[in-house]
Specification:
With 558 residues, the protein is α/β, with parallel strands linked by helices. It is built from 17 helices and 15 strands. Helix 5 crosses helix 11. 30% of the residues are buried.
């Protein structure tokens, strides 16, 4: 429920605060008083497109704020500020947000119906939703099964297509890759082999010089008077000192440890010397092997690791293609099984829709007749779609057709010329949907356009019923319902007389007479009689006031 609305510097409104209650609220006033500004403010708070031209003259920004009381009992506070450059700032419960979030959270709370703003009703794609909402107790379980079956089939189909695509590419790739695989396997490269070979080249190229240097190192370590011999002499001398003084014990131990380290170095140098190759043919073999590996990498690489990856890929392709029959059989069997379940779920859903369609259309015609539309007729065109055109909503396309008279062929609603007629059809639809309609707030702009008298009373009664939850449509789908909050912009006294709350929209000139501003004020009982008298006769004569009072009393007691 919309509880509060604040509008600042929007068109002719300077600063306006409104409080709304449940039930039916009407907004009335002279033509041009500014009622459309209120609708523009609501469109902005719903996430509609903003226009800097809507900002009041002399102001650099406009603001619309609202407080909604949600069904869960919590409040939703919304603020939208629009500046002259066209930038918009949105706050949801005090947190910075976006226009798209506004559309999602607030747009779902409100249905705003103007004479030329009936995209939902005029779009055949939405008509299936109306039928499903009306018969949701019967259709929801079937729609859930259909959705699940559709998802299972799509998953099975995607997996089958993926494997078939891989196999098609794999067979082609396998044939083209046979030569590459044979050559790679013949060369038999090993991971990192090229780097290992390159690391050996400097050693083989300089083997003689390395051998000379290593020999000198060995002589330094083990030759006569060399390091190790000196360390043995040092150990012997220290051992003799220890017979007289034990304070050098740690020194002698450290010297022995150093000797052992040097002995280890000498052994390692000796082993290295023994492994030095002086064979020029070994170097030639490395160059030859590297040439083969580089050629292989150039053809199938660009690196040796890439060659090895390609080899593994080709082996997997061969395994896939050689063992594909059994896997394909299983996947095709799964696709067929899920497809059969999908088709069965679609048939069940379509059957129930057809069964409920006739009653839905009948109820819609009765509701339209109550609105003085005469002996109108509605048909529900159900077109079975080809399998490949099935949607998430089912296997059928559904469109509501309308005939303004029994002898006139039913046509799509989009072909209806009269805006007032469209508004009344929407009102009839809303009254039929009743509790099944999950939209909390219904706003109608001049739903009574072009009518009057008894028709106006019928529309007022229907709006009152919508607000009170008195008209719930199909008896098989009833339940407790507190009704919608209904806000109506009207020029018709017969509609305004049914209101639970009545606001007067008017224009007032500034003290200097240079500008005018729109004001909105709630009317008390006396003021309301005066406003409805004006709407009835354009005067406040005693006769007009009496007539207005009688009309209000009559409507409030119906």
């Amino acid at each position: 429920m919309l509880r509060e609305l604040h509008i600042e510097n929007l068109a002719l409104i300077d600063d306006l605060w409104l409080e709304f209650g449940s039930g039916l609220t009407v907004l009335t006033g002279e033509t041009g008083a500014g009622k459309t500004v209120l609708l523009s403010a609501l469109e902005l708070i719903m996430g509609g497109r903003g226009d800097s031209g809507q900002i009041a003259a002399g102001s650099d920004k406009a603001k619309v704020e609202a407080i909604f009381e949600l069904a869960c009992g919590q409040d939703l506070t919304v603020s939208r500020t629009m500046n002259a450059s066209g930038r918009t700032r949105v706050l949801l419960n005090g947190d910075l947000s976006s226009v798209s979030a506004l559309q999602k959270q607030v747009g779902s709370l409100i249905d705003l119906h103007g004479q030329h703003d009936h995209q939902a009703l005029l779009s055949p794609a939405r008509h299936i939703e109306y039928l499903d909402s009306w018969a949701q107790a019967d259709l929801d379980p079937l729609l859930e099964k259909y959705t699940r079956a559709r998802g299972d089939w799509q998953q099975a189909q995607d997996e089958l297509k993926h494997i078939e695509s891989m196999l098609a590419k794999g067979i082609e790739e396998r044939e083209a890759g046979k030569v590459a695989l044979a050559e790679i396997e013949r060369v038999d490269p090993q991971p990192g082999e090229d780097d290992e070979l390159r690391a050996k080249i400097p050693t083989l190229q300089n083997s003689e010089q390395i051998a000379e240097l290593v020999a000198s190192a060995q002589e330094t370590l083990r030759g006569e008077g060399a390091t190790l011999e000196s360390l043995y002499d040092l150990d012997s001398l220290l051992e003799q000192v220890l017979t007289f003084d034990s304070s050098l014990q740690n020194v002698r131990d450290a010297a022995r440890e150093a000797r052992q380290v040097i002995e280890g170095i000498a052994d390692t140098v000796g082993e290295y010397a023994a492994g030095i190759e002086h064979d020029p043919k070994a170097l030639e073999g490395i160059y030859e092997r590297l040439s083969i590996l580089e050629s292989l990498a150039k053809r199938y690489g660009p690196t040796l690791s890439a060659v090895l990856e390609r080899k593994e890929h080709l082996l997997k392709i061969i395994d896939l293609t050689e063992n594909s029959d059994e896997r394909l059989f299983d996947l095709r069997d799964a696709e067929k099984a899920t497809r059969d379940s999908y088709i069965a779920a679609a048939a069940n859903l379509a059957t129930i829709r057809k069964k409920t369609a006739a009653n839905f259309i009948e109820q819609l015609a009765v509701a339209a007749s109550d609105l003085e539309l005469g002996k109108v007729r509605f048909d529900l065109e159900i077109i079975e779609l080809p399998f490949e055109q099935w949607t998430a909503k089912g296997s059928s396309k559904i469109e509501i057709l309308y005939a303004p008279a029994p002898a006139v062929p039913a046509r799509p609603l989009a072909k209806i010329a009269s805006g007032g007629e469209i508004s009344r059809v929407m009102l009839a639809l809303k009254s039929v949907l009743g509790r099944a309609d999950n939209t909390d707030i219904l706003i109608f702009d001049e739903v009574d356009a072009g009518i009057g008298g008894a028709t106006g009373l019928a529309i007022g009664a229907k709006l009152k019923n919508l607000a009170a939850g008195c008209n719930r449509g199909h008896t098989d789908h009833t339940g407790g319902h507190a009704g919608h909050q209904v806000i109506v912009v009207t020029h018709l006294a017969q509609v305004a007389a049914y209101a639970d709350a009545h606001f007067l929209v008017s224009k007032k000139a500034s003290p200097d007479g240079e500008s005018v501003h729109t004001t909105v004020a709630p009317l008390d009982a006396k003021q309301r009689v005066q406003e409805i008298a004006r709407m009835l006769s354009g005067s406040s004569s005693e006769t007009a006031l009496t007539h207005a009072q009688e009309l209000i009393e009559s409507c409030q007691h119906k």
